[in-house]
Amino acid sequence: MDSNKLRKKVDRKLRKHLHIINKETGVVCSEIPTLNLGICNAGQINGLTEEIIVEHFSEYGPLERIVLIPGKSCAFMRYKDIPSAVKAFDATNTQLKIAQDGKPIYLAYVETVPETSSEKIYDRLPPGLQIIENFITEEEEATLLSLCHFETSGGMKHRQVKHYGYEFRYDINNVDKNKPLPEKIPTECGFLWDRLSFNFRPDQLTINHYKPGQGIPSHVDTHSAFEDPILSLSLNAPVVMEFKKNETICVLLPRRSLAIISGESRYAWSHGIVPRKYDFYYTEDGCSSFKRDTRISFTFRKVLKGECNCSYKLNCDSQNKITIESALATKLENQHVHDVYEDIAGHFSETRHKPWPNVLNFVEKLRVGSVLVDVGCGNGKYFGHNSQIIELGTDRSLKLNELCKERGFEVFNGNCLSLPLKDNTADAVISIAVIHHLRRSPDIRVGQATGEE
Ligand SMILES: [Zn+2]
């Protein structure tokens, strides 16, 4: 194909994409260069992430904003100046292959980038969270790092963990308060408490070793397990931690900083680390990013004697018995999943189904503490979008069960024609693309959220 024909073909495709984008987002394209670039043929639904955009576009100049719209196959970015946008446009348009199936992207200058409600927040911290930078010196960091020896070789899939004082049990999300460990918090950590402006003597330490690409699912530290506050010291490398409660706040935890997670941020916000290799966060100057390195975190906590008496009752396992449902989820998992794992062999390659936006919307709106059951959950694509609910999935495919399990989701093997669930187990049920197989039980309310308030 000669170059003229090729250009016409590209123009035709571009016009088609721009027409769709304009209809879906209202964004108008510009004939002359602007600060704003639109990627017309790739977006969140094709697996494009802020991280990928930063990786490929920050080399042309400082990015001020990145906008990905859930469920859409377009994305937008704004540079600080027009020359940077022009440089990026000329270097990547129809050449950079980050669209679906390794196809090249089509770019256009646009008048504005769309506003989204999922905009990441950077100008404030969750209430009660405090980050103290340079809390320890490099020498002190080296001393603390010498306390823990982790296997550094081999491809560890999950982060490595070591406990002192009490073992944190991930199966019950609590400590066994009657079984303290012989190994207490190393005395070398003692200097840290003198630097705090309040009196705090922790008796439990968890050391986490995160390699690039590893993370921790979003969670609220069990109220009845620990007192307030929780301290997290970041060693060897920074990371971005996401705090969530109706909104997401991305918080940079610099190397050698101390995070004091207290009050509302401890009791009512969940926190987690997205498993990825590049980190991305907003600052006053736009967005910033870095490649992750091995991070060691020291999390210091004080085991709570008795029950929690906080004022965040909805999130409180001591005061709100709805969380008993999570114990049920664990029990079901043990009953129905454990045995079948023995039979699973071979490698399973993930199919790339994307969630339907309307279903996602439903799941995201479920109230705090709701128990959601996904019948025919597949690879668990509707899980992990709402940290405030309890999720339980079932699918008849063992391979898909395993995949869910690997992704950290509670799932059991089952046939949707005879669900092994007790009455009134769920507040909400979804069954996507399998609903015609499901015999409805009058006690399970399909498609309706009924969380307690
Ligand atoms: Zn509580």
From TrEMBL:
Annotated RRM domain ranges read 35-112
Q: InterPro entries given for it?
A: AlkB-like, AlkB-like_sf, AlkB_tRNA_MeTrf/Diox, ALKBH8_RRM, Methyltransf_11, Nucleotide-bd_a/b_plait_sf, Oxoglu/Fe-dep_dioxygenase_dom, RBD_domain_sf
Question: What Pfam family is a match for this entry?
Answer: RRM_1
Q: Which cofactors are required for activity?
A: Fe(2+)
Q: What is its EC number?
A: 2.1.1.229
PROSITE patterns xref list: FE2OG_OXY, RRM
Keyword Nucleotidyltransferase listed: no
The entry lists its GO molecular-function terms as:
metal ion binding; S-adenosylmethionine-dependent methyltransferase activity; tRNA (5-carboxymethyluridine(34)-5-O)-methyltransferase activity; tRNA binding
What SMART domains is this protein classified in? RRM
Instruction: Please indicate which superkingdom the organism of origin belongs to.
Output: Eukaryota
GO terms (BP aspect): tRNA methylation; tRNA wobble uridine modification
Looking at the record, the residues that make up the Fe2OG dioxygenase domain are 201-304
Q: Does the keyword Transferase apply?
A: yes
- Tell me which UniProt keywords the record has, alphabetically: Cytoplasm, Iron, Metal-binding, Methyltransferase, Multifunctional enzyme, Nucleus, RNA-binding, S-adenosyl-L-methionine, Transferase, Zinc
Q: Where does it mainly reside?
A: cytoplasm
**What does the similarity note say?**
Belongs to the alkB family.
Summary of the function given for this chain in its UniProt record:
Catalyzes the methylation of 5-carboxymethyl uridine to 5-methylcarboxymethyl uridine at the wobble position of the anticodon loop in tRNA via its methyltransferase domain. Catalyzes the last step in the formation of 5-methylcarboxymethyl uridine at the wobble position of the anticodon loop in target tRNA. Has a preference for tRNA(Arg) and tRNA(Glu), and does not bind tRNA(Lys).
Please state what the protein is called.
Answer: tRNA (carboxymethyluridine(34)-5-O)-methyltransferase
Protein source organism: Tenebrio molitor
